[in-house]
Amino acid sequence: xxxxxxxxxxxxxxxxxxxxxxxxxxxxxxxxxxxxxxxxxxxxxxxxxxxxxxxxxxxxxxxxxxxxxxxxxxxxxxxxxxxxxxxxxxxxxxxxxxxxxxxxxxxxxxxxxxxxxxxxxxxxxxxxxxxxxxxxxxxxxxxxxxxxxxxxxxxxxxxxxxxxxxxxxxxxxxxxxxxxxxxxxxxxxxxxxxxxxxxxxxxxxxxxxxxxxxxxxxxxxxxxxxxxxxxxxxxxxxxxxxxxxxxxxxxxxxxxxxxxxxxxxxxxxxxxxxxxxxxxxxxxxxxxxxxxxxxxxxxxxxxxxxxxxxxxxxxxxxxxxxxxxxxxxxxxxxxxxxxxxxxxxxxxxxxxxxxxxxxxxxxxxxxxxxxxxxxxxxxxxxxxxxxxxxxxxxxxxxxxxxxxxxxxxxxxxxxxxxxxxxxxxxxxxxxxxxxxxxxxxxxxxxxxxxxxxxxxxxxxxxxxx
Length: 465
Description:
Pfam family, one: Kelch_KLHDC2_KLHL20_DRC7
Protein name: F-box/kelch-repeat protein At1g51550-like
InterPro entries: F-box-like_dom_sf (IPR036047), F-box_dom (IPR001810), Kelch-typ_b-propeller (IPR015915)
Strand content: 35-45%
Keywords: Kelch repeat
CATH superfamily of the largest domain: Kelch-type beta propeller
CATH architecture of the largest domain: 6 Propeller
Domain F-box: 16-62
Distance between the termini: 58 Å
CATH topology of the largest domain: Neuraminidase
Oligomer: single chain
Largest sheet: 8 strands, mixed
Number of domains: 2
Number of helices: 9
Shape: globular
Number of strands: 30
Radius of gyration: 24 Å
Helix content: 10-25%
Strand order of the largest sheet: 21-22-23-24-1-30-27-26
């Protein structure tokens, strides 16, 4: 009897009656719980399941699951020619992002020569907030700091010819080597250096608004943080993390010594007050400046590169996890020799941006001989969980070799640069790069030939929709 029941159950399963009785919405819900490899395997079982597992609505939901709602909605909004956004080929888009090996660059310049443009600079800040690019401060020729703020509205048209607008706010004071991150729809700025060599430890909150008739407005206010704040510094790294928090690491302190400390500020609900506290844990990244710190998840950030205490240029990767009430730094070890062209990875003054598909795009920087770079690298740490990252070693060298991949670039040939800035739009598809130090023709009075750049160019990460 038991045998016949088992046979009957197997027969029903083979006839497909159990899964056939599930509604398509229920099947979609189940498929969204599976990894991509399992979904593709499910699609190969029969024609009916191939149709279900290849549906555009399912793959839009998968993109939302893996890329976030903000990125998907921004991608849909950017397709002005499609009134029916369901026509977006989500499965093809997902595959293209997963296999990203090429970017296309375009120089963005205003066709009207009478309009004012930001002056060339480096070690400034550049952010995408409220549909606008916002540029503040930086350093220029002669070691002078800048105190100007510029903004350009982009909205959903990421390929538009930009019109910069100068914002007259008067604050914060002029500086370079500061950091500025986006929290919700606000800018949070910390630290920096002025042309007298003074380091700052002030924290500012900026609110950006765009009006069709009035243009762009930006209002700053000094954040009240009480008596506890990090050591004044510049050339540090920062990013937002979790809800209304910003983390900073390293930089150059008042005595010119490179720092290795980690601090977090938590902003109040009205973003008028903040509380700083230092994270003291071991192991932690060595002291450095000119490195990058990039948020990759709600409570995780990646630190890469920079210049160390001995003036050496670094290529180490560290993961900071601040989940569940504890904090942990863990180094991700890899071998440069196992990565094609990996010997060029060590760098300082680069940009590291979280892009569509959940990976980091590394661009530019300079090596220990101050040779500036124009290359693009993908750092893919999606397959490495924090639990597997130990201070000693990782088990899979092959996995670590696949973390890094150099991308090809076509279109506009940008100058090799360092200490530029880069940011992405809400979709994560378009990267904006501005300024930096570039190599120039040496003048009789200067042997180094150093000059500052004022180009803004666009890097398109997904070429066709």
